[in-house]
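Hmm, how's this folded?
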Amino acid sequence: MSIAVLGTDRELINILSSIIEEMDQIPDGTTDKDRFLEVIDPKVHSIAIIDDYFRDVIEGTKQVYPEIEVVVIGDGDGKEFINIGATYYLKKPFKVQELEEILGVLLSRPTSTGQAKQGNLVYADPKMKRIVDILNKVAPTQAPVFIQGESGTGKEVIARYIHVHSKRRKGPFVGINLAAIPETLVESELFGYEKGAFTGAYAARIGKFEQANKGTILLDEISEMHPGLQAKLLRVLQEKQVDRIGSKSSTPVDFRVIATTNRDIGVCIRDGSFREDLFFRLNVIPIDVPPLRDRKEDIIPLAEYFISIVATREGVPRKALRKDTKKLLLEYHWPGNVRELENVMERAMILTEGPEITENDILIDNKSSTQGNIFLASGMTISEMERRLIISTLDSVSWNRTKAAELLGISIRTLRNKLNEYKEKGQIYDDREKAKAQNISG
């Protein structure tokens, strides 16, 4: 997906494009209003950054493509733009960090594509069959669900399945990834704020809980929430009402909560980073999603499902998996789980020229496994093992930090901090690592 940019100043567009590229996203900038209107497309652009000079474009974009998040930049009053549908108004002059935080929040929002959009589950393994049996019993109820599993195992897909098969299916499904949002923005994203509550609050804004009224809210990676906010979250779950920042009164909200984590929640409770009473409130129905390597019978059905998705999307014939290709897929350990399998099959569908996908068309790390790239020696420190794992994972995805963070099960912010730490300590040893590290932004 790309981020569209429309501005009056080519120099500013170039600066914005650099920021977008630094976040591993693709910028699509122009000063030509007609060109912008010609190319803007929700299938291509998830976010649009538009100068407030183009008020008619902002209004038209939100009317025609409400799914595109619009960030308006300008030096006026942002209230009118918030009222016509803009998600954020960024007042000039602004700091790079402000824009990065806003884009980070928007990019962290769960997407509604493919399997997840329809609430479909593709499975054949007995372990997943047992989970689906539980989901079918749980979905019609109002009980909170707590989903645990490694990054990329399909926790969001399961959450959507619950919503689609619930009595709330006609209501909204609202997700928030707590691992990808700066701590300073989490409270306002969850609970909203009143006009004038803080600098930049040009208009009142409802939070995720109010957006999820009569529907379901997904608290993705709940274990990443700062302990200071967990008490406020517990109160919202208990009383079913929210207090916007700056508000003197509470707003009742009707929602069902689903929470996920890729961490060992028991460890988080023991080390004090997660409240035990909050866990008990969320963990009414526990769901443990096994990693893809532990449910081998799902690999081929999922691979063929992703082939069908790409074929339909691109308008091309489906390609068959050869016997040796299936064997390779079944033998691979899939550290990135279902998400990695989806990416591998998309690459294969796009790059394969013939009607069959061969073993050579599968670009996975079985031949240069992430596990095999990490040299471990007796007496090596945990921190050094961690460094080598991070560098090896980055190498495996051509230093795409977004993909690496997903595979490692950490936030992009954490990954960036780690790389900065290695750079400061002179621990980026290899020439290739040094070259890549030159572009690390603090």
